[in-house]
Amino acid sequence: MARQERAIRTRRTILEAAAAVFDERGYTSATIGEILDRAGVTKGALYFHFGSKEELAVGVFEEQLSIALPPQSSKLQELVDSGLVLARRLRSEPLVRASVGLALDQGAMDLDRTMAFGMWFDQNVQRLAEAKAQGELLPHVDVAETAELLVGSFSGVQLLSQLRCQRQDLERRVVVLFEHFLPSIAVPAVLARLDISAERAERVLAEGREQVGAVPAQASPGAVRASSAT
Amino acid sequence: MARQERAIRTRRTILEAAAAVFDERGYTSATIGEILDRAGVTKGALYFHFGSKEELAVGVFEEQLSIALPPQSSKLQELVDSGLVLARRLRSEPLVRASVGLALDQGAMDLDRTMAFGMWFDQNVQRLAEAKAQGELLPHVDVAETAELLVGSFSGVQLLSQLRCQRQDLERRVVVLFEHFLPSIAVPAVLARLDISAERAERVLAEGREQVGAVPAQASPGAVRASSAT
């Protein structure tokens, strides 16, 4: 195994262990020692990738956002894709689930949880700003307000889906969210061409994985940063 | 003081005490004994109004919804008003805040929190169904889906506002929410007449209070039920 690939795997193992421990014990009670035990790696390996418990939390947050999706000519389609894919991953990937749990953990007083929402907000702002520059948005749209609303609404929608049915209907709920939002922000010609179906997530994820397979280092900004430091 | 009025006040005192104890200790750890101490009422008085800890939680939930607002000819305007007023009360009334805290308390495993969302959902369904019957909604609107989305989105929006700035901008965020939603569900002639301003909450609350002053027993379904049992 190449050295870079090994570093990426170790980093992922540590993050998964940290996510599981945060999930079970809460961020405040969790210790680095427990995460080491769970991951089965040396202290040196952990501190090579993450300098502190907070950096581990940031790593878990980043995991939610760091996924390569196939680029689309419509930036609003990319926004929709990222929402649908996040819904899909929340159902299937414990690490992504833990990331949301951590952001919503009201007991984690010593963690700056606004950071998690901030990173997600920034990503939405960027996509919406690109959409605006391409003429995809109606003229009145305030990019920052819409991005913040999207982050808040998505958080609440997934929370209610978790409470009602363990997130089994989350993709459908995210479709309903976009169906209600997009007519207020997209120009009609773009709106008519958007694909907002629940089945799209699976397809987009598969396409993304193929691209990642071709260029592995592009999979995750976090992974790239850590491995290039090797 | 009339007997009915006294019963309403006692009930309110008990609910405020319960809300404070749930807020500080979490629902699971809170005991009836602590709530009695805090309220300064007898065990008999508490059990006259509430049969169990769970009934106290239901009472706290109901408080969020049981407020008389001035009726409007547009049912969508009533929907908007209830959202704006809830935002305002979340900032100013500890009991309403505790109600939301309880609904989002992930540690309250022995409490059916879906009930809180269910009651709120039902209220939205009713208003939207009335709006639909009056021809205020676009033909494709699925009342249940829209009501559930509204409950989820509002929950997330208030959560993010709490995290970012202790809910100081909550009314503005709820305005943004409605501005994004309503164009997808309201017929244009109704949409153009809706008042979705942040300042409206205060005005509507004041009008509601005047009406409540005239007919006190209509203030809260819970209060009515309890006092008529006296």
Can you put this structure into words, describing what you see?
- Chain A is mostly helical.
- Chain A folds into 2 domains: 3-61, Arc Repressor Mutant, subunit A, CATH 1.10.10; 68-215, Tetracycline Repressor, domain 2.
- Chain A is 70% helix and 0% strand.
- Chain A has helices at 3-25, 32-39, 43-49, 53-65, 75-92, 94-103, 114-133, 143-165, 170-181, 188-191, 200-214, 221-228.
- Chains A and B meet through helix 8 and helix 9 of A and helix 8 and helix 9 of B.
Please tally the helical runs of chain A, counting DSSP H or I stretches of 4 or more residues. 12
CATH architecture of the largest domain in chain A: Orthogonal Bundle
* The CATH class of the largest domain in chain A: Mainly Alpha
The whole-number mean of residue pLDDT values of chain A reads 87
Oligomer: homodimer
Structural class of chain A, please?
mainly alpha
Contiguous uncertain segments of 5+ residues of chain A:
215-230
Helix content of chain A: over 70%
Largest sheet of chain A: none
| CATH topology descriptor of the largest domain in chain A | Tetracycline Repressor, domain 2
Domain module tally of chain A: 2
Concise summary:
The first copy, chain A, has 230 residues and is mainly alpha-helical.
List keywords for this structure.
homodimer; 230 residues; mainly alpha; Arc Repressor Mutant, subunit A; Tetracycline Repressor, domain 2; 2 domains
